[in-house]
Specification:
The structure is a single chain. The chain is built from eight helices and four strands. With 279 residues, the chain is of the alpha/beta class. The protein starts with 24 loop residues before the first helix and ends with a helix.
């Protein structure tokens, strides 16, 4: 299969985590979760049917593009002007879009494991009562591998390292990280390798995760960068450690005001635009 350029990876799936995901209360969350699980079950049934009944049909290659902590309100797929994510919007316009996609946990480790196992965190237990996936829980990569797929993962490290069970089922598990700027070249090099079977690839990146300073392919479309007006205690610039401190212990920072919160929002948007450049 010829190599795809960075701006032409067509098969992608984004992982969205939003502070607004649970709006509407527990009942709505349970209903949404039930709908999501049902949709996953249907998808799995379709895959099983495909493998069982269509062996003579050429099997598709599958790529999951997993952007950690990507807020759905930054994914502009409508007709509004000047979107933050023009490449993702172009992809969405020729794709099936699921707008009721809800993270199964507000943290990376359990939510990512739910994506790769189709299990609630309470069932796969990783990040809840354990830090390693039980052998009894099967993964998506294992299913692809069992059906003859070449499997590879290129991830951004941190909470998605192999020791938690993410490496299971992958012929190659690369957790060198480097955000999409470092991950995409490794993926393209792997795709260039000759092979006589279809492939399943999982890409995971923290470009939209704090401290919101990923390397951009081009110029960021967030014009004001990371600077802001005078705010006591910050010397007109936030360092990565300042951003983490604000997000985790906002009550301890009396200097946090609308100007700082606006900077945090723009810094996040910087990560969003940089991630979009690589899609």
């Amino acid at each position: 299969m010829p190599r795809e350029a960075p701006g032409r990876i067509h098969s992608a799936r984004s992982h969205f985590v939003s502070a607004r995901s649970s709006a509407g209360g527990p009942a709505r969350s349970r209903r949404a979760a039930a709908v999501g699980l049902a949709a996953t079950a249907l998808a799995i049934a379709a895959v099983v049917a495909f493998f069982s009944c269509a062996r003579e049909v050429r099997r598709p290659n599958v790529i999951i593009l997993d952007l950690d902590t990507f807020r759905p309100d930054r994914l502009e797929i409508g007709d509004g002007p000047d979107p933050l994510t023009p490449h993702l919007r172009a992809l969405a316009r020729r794709s099936r879009v699921f707008k009721n996609a809800i993270s199964q946990a507000p943290r990376t480790l359990p939510s990512q494991m739910s994506i790769l196992t189709s299990r609630y965190p309470s069932r796969h237990t990783v990040g809840v009562t354990s830090h390693s996936l039980p052998e009894s829980v099967a993964t998506l990569a294992e299913a692809f591998h069992a059906h003859g797929y070449a499997t590879a993962a290129f991830v951004d490290g941190g909470w998605v390292r192999g020791r938690y069970g993410f490496a299971r089922g992958f012929d190659l598990f690369n957790d060198q990280g480097g955000r999409l700027a470092g991950i995409i070249p490794r993926v393209l090099a792997w795709l260039d390798e000759p092979r006589d079977r279809p492939f399943f690839v999982w890409l995971h990146a923290y470009d939209t995760h704090a401290p919101y300073d990923p390397p951009c392919k081009g110029e960021s479309r967030v014009p004001t960068g990371r600077r802001f007006g005078p705010t006591p205690g910050f010397e007109n610039r936030l360092r990565p450690q300042d951003i983490f401190a604000i997000l985790q212990h906002q009550s301890r920072w009396p200097a946090v005001n609308d100007s700082v919160l606006d900077l945090l929002s723009r810094s996040y948007d910087h990560g969003v635009t940089c991630a979009d450049e690589w899609v």
